[in-house]
Design a protein that fits this description.
Blueprint: E1 23-27, E2 32-37, E3 40-45, H1 49-60, E4 64-68, E5 98-102, H2 106-125, H3 139-157, E6 163-167, H4 174-181, E7 186-190, H5 198-201, H6 207-214, E8 219-222, H7 225-238, E9 244-247, E10 252-255, E11 258-264, H8 271-278, H9 281-291, E12 298-305, H10 312-325, E13 333-340, H11 347-367, E14 375-378, H12 384-393, E15 396-399, H13 408-416, E16 423-427, E17 440-442, H14 447-458, H15 462-478, H16 481-497
Length: 499
């Protein structure tokens, strides 16, 4: 099942996501953290679109969230709290729904999360084969063991009425591991990163085990139809013919006596929340004051995690070419690069930070003069309101990943531009490019084209700029994060009823 350009699916939902059983989310990431400082207890909801989208659904359905127990952040389960701080009354701590932590040993975290998930699956699924580490034999056993622990937690805490929704590449074995113990369970899986083309995926050792793990689901969701089609290719070519039957017309797979539905569900953002925030006098005043810090006619912006898949180095190279090729913009245009830290324990990310900071220093050394600096670089995390203020003042956003499952920053930028003032430059190698067709598309490996598109964006006539942003905002607002949850749950219900 695909949703081409958000057209109505031929599959009719048989159950609203608001009816029938609990929703159980299974993810590596926790929805809340509980931290102590002396006698004070602080409960914080984790940032990100996934938690924002699913939190209200779990509240409504008395749901359950199963996640890794990150003891460094003092995460606890509401029903079973232990602490060294005897002065805290843990019984008074109330979370909006049950959270079941899955304890992992330091060795398992090192080899399951930092090892197999992030030095094999992440780079391979993003086509960065040279970043894959296939040598450490401890990674696979830890990945399997961690997935088994998550599966055992699911079985221990749920029943056949629950709707189990497994999230992302960290837990690709969980559906089948649960299915082995509970054959009639309702299990969905969503992959938040790309699924690669067959010739890339087949490089992965134990690729068949990964496919079989995923096929334990009733519904497997991807961001766009291309990823779903690549998954069907892999199943058809890599699993034994007698074990599976691929029905491409209906996007489903017959496996172990049941049908597994496959579909495309582009994840999105809470556009209404962003629109409301940027419309407040508080944030508008904040944006005006922020704009005064940048003495230039135009401002460009890029926001992303400091990850080698995000194209930050290529973007910086394009900026150097831009100033060399179009020197009239020197002094009139400055660029803000916000790079939030991620996976800082992984050597590839440590090297990436060094390379980015060297590139920023080189370009600023070449072009800066008086009180004007071409690139303003920030390596830290920003709050949502901080980021929105930057979106509000940015004339151009350059979102240029070398490969990305979706990219929600591009959608957040569009949602924030209520005055229709901005231009979005977007990598055609993102899932977002499938939806945000009015953006100025670029090939992030074609550096000179990126420089030319930036020049074109700064010279785009106002009526065209506004028309493009109006269309982009309409797409983002109509197909928001709540639409994503509802469309997946409706398809989930259909898949279970027809398996």
């Amino acid at each position: 099942m695909t949703q081409e350009n958000h057209s109505d699916s031929t599959i009719k939902p048989v159950m609203s996501s608001g009816r029938g059983g609990r929703l159980v989310i299974v993810s590596n990431r926790e929805p809340y953290t509980i931290q102590t400082c002396g006698n004070e207890v602080r409960i914080e909801r984790m940032p990100g679109g996934l938690v924002s989208a699913l939190d209200p659904v779990l509240r409504q359905r008395d749901g359950l969230w199963i996640c890794w127990e990150d003891t460094s952040k003092k995460s606890v389960e509401v029903e079973d709290v232990a602490s060294d701080e005897d002065s805290i009354d843990w019984d008074k701590i109330q979370l909006p729904y049950k959270i079941k932590p899955v304890p992992l040993t330091p060795q398992e975290i090192n080899h399951y999360y930092y090892g197999y998930a992030n030095t094999r699956l992440w780079p391979l699924f993003h086509y960065f084969i040279s970043h894959c580490n296939f040598l450490d034999e401890r990674d696979w056993p830890s990945y399997f063991t961690a997935n088994q622990k998550f599966a055992d937690a699911v079985v221990a805490c749920t029943d056949a009425e629950d709707w189990i929704w497994v999230q992302d590449y960290h837990l690709l074995l969980v559906p089948e591991l649960v299915r082995q113990q509970r054959p009639n369970y309702k299990i969905g899986l969503f992959l938040h990163i790309p699924f690669p083309a067959l010739e890339v995926f087949r490089i992965l050792p134990r690729r068949n085990v990964i496919l079989q793990g995923m096929l334990g689901s009733d519904l497997i969701g991807f961001h766009i139809p291309d990823y779903a089609a690549y998954f069907l290719d892999a199943v058809e070519r890599l699993l034994p013919d007698e074990a599976v039957k691929v029905d491409r017309e209906n996007m489903r797979i017959y496996y172990q006596g049941r049908w597994v539905q496959v579909g495309a569900f582009p994840i999105s953002i809470d556009a209404a929340k962003i629109t409301a925030l940027v419309s407040t006098p508080k944030l508008q005043n904040r944006a005006r004051k922020l704009r005064e810090n940048y003495p230039a006619k135009y401002i460009g912006l890029s926001v992303d995690r400091l990850d080698y898949t995000k194209g930050i180095l290529e973007n910086l190279q394009a900026l150097q070419v831009f100033f060399e090729k179009y020197p009239e913009h020197i002094g009139n245009f400055c660029f803000i690069q916000i790079a939030s830290p991620t996976r800082t324990a992984v050597p590839a990310y440590q090297r990436m930070r060094e390379e980015v900071e060297q590139a920023v220093g080189r370009i600023n050394g070449l072009f800066s003069y008086d009180n004007w600096v071409p690139i303003h670089y920030f390596y830290r995390r920003f709050s949502l309101e901080d980021i929105l203020a930057y979106f509000m003042i940015a004339d151009v956003a350059m979102i240029t990943p070398l490969r990305d499952g979706m990219n929600l920053v591009a959608k957040e930028y569009c949602a924030a531009k209520v005055d229709l003032s901005g231009v979005l430059i977007l990598s055609e190698l993102t899932g977002a490019a499938y939806e945000l067709k009015e953006a100025l598309m670029i090939n992030p490996f074609y550096i000179e084209e990126m420089a030319d598109k930036l020049h074109a964006a700064l010279n785009l006539p106002a009526p065209i700029r506004q028309a493009k942003m109006r269309a982009l905002r309409q797409t983002v607002c109509n197909y928001d994060i709540h639409h994503w949850v509802q469309s997946f749950m409706d398809a989930f219900a259909y898949a279970v009823s027809h398996r």
